[in-house]
Inverse folding.
């Protein structure tokens, strides 16, 4: 559960959510709920991603062909829509990761030296 | 992305989230509430997702379509021969059908440019089941007696001598009643048409004459031009599209009927056209004129005996036989088109079998069935699209060739043919259906197929199935049937043309040249001066009143001696006024008696030569020489008997395809005075000379010796006339022959394709057979038998269908029956031979398959 100090990720930085979703799918196809759970666990309560902003992000990524979606069956036998990283998405993840590293390094350098 | 799917996805998420919360101890109601709340406003979210999903889907479909198109093009490049044959075949089919149907539309279906084409009628006299010209008396009386017409107008075709720089010229024109133009309602491009108060010396010009002889001078109105040595004032110019009777008149002058003409009911020279009142039906008009004709026949029993009248819509009447002719061609083209479609279907079927493996692989790696079907549909569509682009070009070329090759004046309005969009769209649709359907059928079957099985099947795929072979065999049968029908139809027409070509015309046409000469009534006012002028010309060249092979000319009722003097005894016989040397020049044999001599003059015994046909009709089995005949002049008290002095061989005046009419000949000096009016004071000069140029100058010199201002018209050799007369039949034969050749080629290609496919399919099996001891000849026979079965079936079915339907051609046939055995046998042999050749080429390839092939992978 989110605590009082956690920030909404959208407030942190636009575009970061996309990179996180791509990262979530890098390890294999998942449905939307599984993506949400993975993000929650990875963030370990530091940031909160509203379920309401996750799905528009997924759909936009699909539109950009960074991910593909298809109906499939979960381990428990439920029908769910599974998202899969495309080759294009994999490239985009690499780009986003590099950019973030550069950006984060820049921001910390600026903030910490001041 | 459909709203339902969005709903399902979100419902799944809410449920999973709620379960998670419940697992942590949140009460059920609260868990569901929280799970929903974390998605925010569900309606708003759903709307956003649906919107994004839909735009994604649209883009995907577009890019899929584009990649399908690219894939289809790559497929064609990968198999260029297949693509070229399929597209070429379709293009020929589409182009041919479009061209011919466009012609049918221009000639038959397009309305004439008149104000009321549906009310414009042609009103001829009927005599012995024939439509004929109308006498002035009858026309004048019909106008007074009928009520179905707002206008009833008359035209008398005539030749005119137009005396304008640089030289006098003979032109054709019409003497018309002042309401003639009102019937058609077409406006002049300059000036006006005739009015009832016009005097008789005004003239309306055609656009063609105005352009060619007067340089399209816009100031021509009111100018005086000289026609038949008489001044006429130009009052108007009609547009090029004004040719209501398709007679190509170049000028029109008022017809002036004298009281004597108005009372004359037995000289039939007028073409009568009318405009029905808005309320009158054609049937009513028919009854109306027929009733008038009955009353007139009762009133003038001598002149109007057996004379009735009829009314036809003018448009269909003009199109007449061209209608049938184009329908034959259209039928032939449709057969070619069907053969083309069957061929392409065949090719695509064969292709899809070859591609079964590829498609199975694509299915195995995850392409959905819908995706595969869409892909194959795209391929069919791309193919028919390319074929139709090519087809438009083919159609444009064919129309040009058709218009250029068609003999002039045989098919009215043909030159107005242009590619018809509606027709093109129709041909396209049919081609697309054929292509797509033949691509889709196997696609659906493939999509149902378990891909693993196809892949295991060594690439032979499901195409190897028995039912598939049957389908393809059936296509060969259909193809052979269609080709046989096409070949029989064109074979019959070609045979007709050959028979016509060999037809004897009754005279020797080698080296014969003919030209017309007319004596204007203004200069040559009385019969004696006309007679003397023609006799003067006849000293240098041979003269006859009707040009050889140009038609029957005028006829007269001849009454042989012994029969009662009255119209019921008359034999309608073509009149020929000739110079004495006519029979020698034309080499028409005198079978009995003698030819004319210079002693057969006015005042001597009135003599006549009759044709063998007339002699047989007048005195069956008897001797004609010395018998007497009443003809053309005289009264009951003085019938002016003429004595038959010779019987000449029959001549086919109507041309090689025409019937043989009875004819009689009179010497110029003994011709009845009235006869010069009947023939418009015009005669035809005839000269036999190996050089047409010499002949022409001889004839010009002959006319010049009489009067240097007289024009010589229409110089032509008899060979040209013969060819012109044969042109329609030859054109038919040529066109259908060409179509038959295309059809034969296409079906040969189709048969070849199928057998080659069978061979490819069975290569493995043949290898096994060879390994097990079958000889090369066994293999050849096996493949030939498999190919021959559908061909023989097609030949049989085709023969039966042709026997039943060839009757439709009857009106275009000459000298052959619709079930002419020679044509059927020849067509069967040709088609069978071509089919066997098409089978043998791939079958021989099968023969060379080595037993080792049994061990190799695939087919």
């Amino acid at each position: 559960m989110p605590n009082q100090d956690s920030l909404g990720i959208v407030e942190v930085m636009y575009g970061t959510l996309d990179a996180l979703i791509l990262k979530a799918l890098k390890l294999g196809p998942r449905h939307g709920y599984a993506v949400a759970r993975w993000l929650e666990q990875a963030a370990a309560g530091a940031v909160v991603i509203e379920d309401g902003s996750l799905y528009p992000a997924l759909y936009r990524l699909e539109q950009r062909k960074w991910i593909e979606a298809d109906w499939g069956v979960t381990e428990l036998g439920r029908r769910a829509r599974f998202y899969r990283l495309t080759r294009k998405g994999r490239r985009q993840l690499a780009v986003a990761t590099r950019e973030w590293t550069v950006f984060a390094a820049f921001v910390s350098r600026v903030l910490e030296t001041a | 992305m459909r709203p339902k799917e969005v709903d399902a996805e979100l419902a799944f998420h809410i449920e999973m989230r709620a379960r998670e919360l419940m697992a942590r101890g949140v009460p059920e109601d609260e868990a569901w509430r929280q799970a929903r709340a974390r998605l925010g406003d569900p309606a708003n979210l759903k709307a956003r997702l649906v919107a994004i999903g839909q735009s994604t889907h649209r883009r995907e479909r577009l890019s899929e379509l584009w990649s399908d198109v690219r894939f289809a093009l790559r497929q064609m490049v990968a198999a260029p021969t297949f693509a070229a044959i399929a597209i070429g075949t379709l293009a020929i089919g589409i182009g041919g059908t479009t061209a011919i149907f466009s012609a049918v539309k221009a000639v038959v279906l397009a309305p004439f440019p008149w104000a009321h084409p549906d009310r414009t009628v042609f009103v001829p006299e009927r005599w012995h089941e024939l439509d004929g010209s109308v006498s002035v008396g009858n026309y004048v009386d019909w106008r007074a007696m009928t009520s179905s017409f707002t206008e009833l107008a008359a035209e008398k075709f005539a030749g005119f001598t137009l005396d304008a720089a640089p030289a006098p010229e003979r032109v054709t024109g019409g003497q018309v009643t002042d309401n003639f133009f009102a019937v058609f309602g077409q406006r002049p491009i300059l000036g006006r048409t005739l009015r009832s108060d016009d005097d008789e010396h005004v003239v309306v010009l055609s656009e063609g004459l105005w352009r060619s002889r007067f340089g399209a001078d816009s100031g021509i109105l009111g100018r005086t031009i000289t026609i038949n040595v008489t001044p006429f004032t130009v009052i108007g110019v009609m547009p090029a599209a004004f040719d209501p009777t398709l007679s190509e008149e170049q000028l029109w002058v008022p017809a002036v009927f004298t009281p004597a003409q108005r009372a004359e009911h037995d000289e039939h020279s007028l073409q009568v056209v009318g405009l029905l009142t808005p309320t009158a039906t054609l049937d009513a008009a028919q009854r109306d004129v027929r009733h008038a004709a009955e009353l007139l026949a009762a009133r003038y029993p001598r002149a109007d005996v057996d004379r009735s009248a009829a009314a036809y819509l003018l448009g269909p009447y003009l199109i007449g036989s061209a209608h049938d002719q184009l329908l034959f061609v259209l039928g032939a083209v449709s057969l070619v088109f069907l053969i083309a479609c069957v061929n392409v279907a065949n090719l695509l079927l064969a292709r899809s079998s070859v591609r079964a493996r590829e498609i199975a692989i694509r299915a195995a790696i995850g392409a959905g069935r819908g995706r595969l079907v869409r892909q194959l549909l795209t391929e069919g569509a791309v193919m028919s699209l390319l074929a139709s682009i090519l087809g438009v070009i083919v159609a444009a070329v064919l129309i040009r060739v058709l218009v250029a090759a068609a003999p002039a004046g045989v098919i009215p309005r043909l030159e107005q043919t242009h590619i018809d969009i509606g027709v093109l769209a129709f041909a396209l649709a049919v081609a697309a259906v054929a292509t797509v359907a033949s691509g889709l059928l196997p696609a659906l079957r493939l999509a149902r197929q378990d891909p693993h099985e196809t892949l295991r099947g060594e690439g032979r795929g499901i195409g190897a199935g028995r039912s598939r072979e049957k389908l393809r065999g059936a296509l060969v049968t259909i193809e052979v049937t269609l080709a046989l029908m096409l070949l029989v139809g064109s074979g019959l027409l070609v045979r007709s043309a050959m028979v016509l070509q060999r037809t004897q015309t009754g005279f020797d046409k080698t080296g014969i040249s003919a030209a017309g000469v007319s004596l204007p009534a203004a200069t040559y006012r009385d019969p004696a001066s006309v007679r003397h002028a023609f006799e003067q010309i006849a000293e240098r060249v041979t003269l006859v009143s009707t040009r050889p092979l140009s038609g029957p000319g005028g006829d007269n009722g001849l009454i042989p001696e012994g029969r009662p003097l009255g119209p019921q005894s008359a034999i309608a016989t073509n009149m020929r006024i000739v110079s004495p040397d006519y029979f020698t020049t034309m080499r028409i044999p005198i079978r009995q008696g003698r030819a004319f001599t210079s002693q057969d003059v006015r005042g001597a015994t009135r003599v006549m030569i009759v044709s063998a046909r007339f002699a047989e009709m007048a005195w069956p089995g008897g001797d004609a020489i010395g018998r007497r005949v009443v003809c053309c002049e005289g009264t009951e008290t003085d019938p002016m008997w003429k004595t038959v002095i010779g019987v000449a061989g029959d001549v086919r005046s109507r041309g090689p395809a025409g019937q043989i009419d009875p004819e009689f000949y009179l010497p110029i000096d003994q011709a009845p005075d009235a006869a010069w009016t009947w023939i418009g004071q015009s005669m035809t000069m005839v000269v036999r000379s190996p050089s047409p140029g010499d002949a022409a100058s001889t004839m010009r010199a002959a006319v010049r010796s009489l009067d240097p201002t007289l024009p010589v018209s229409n110089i032509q050799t008899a060979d040209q006339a013969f060819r012109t007369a044969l042109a329609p039949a030859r054109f038919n034969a040529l066109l259908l022959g060409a179509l038959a050749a295309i059809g034969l080629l296409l079906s040969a290609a189709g048969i070849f394709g199928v057998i080659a496919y069978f061979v490819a399919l069975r290569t493995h099996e043949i290898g096994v057979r060879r390994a097990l001891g079958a000889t090369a000849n066994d293999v050849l026979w096996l493949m030939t038998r498999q190919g021959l079965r559908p061909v023989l079936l097609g030949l049989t079915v085709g023969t039966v269908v042709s026997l039943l339907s060839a009757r439709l051609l009857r009106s275009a046939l000459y000298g052959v029956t619709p079930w002419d055995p020679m044509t059927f046998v020849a067509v069967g042999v040709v088609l069978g031979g071509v089919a066997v050749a098409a089978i043998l080429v791939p079958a021989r390839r099968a023969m060379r398959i080595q037993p080792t092939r049994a061990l190799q992978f695939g087919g």
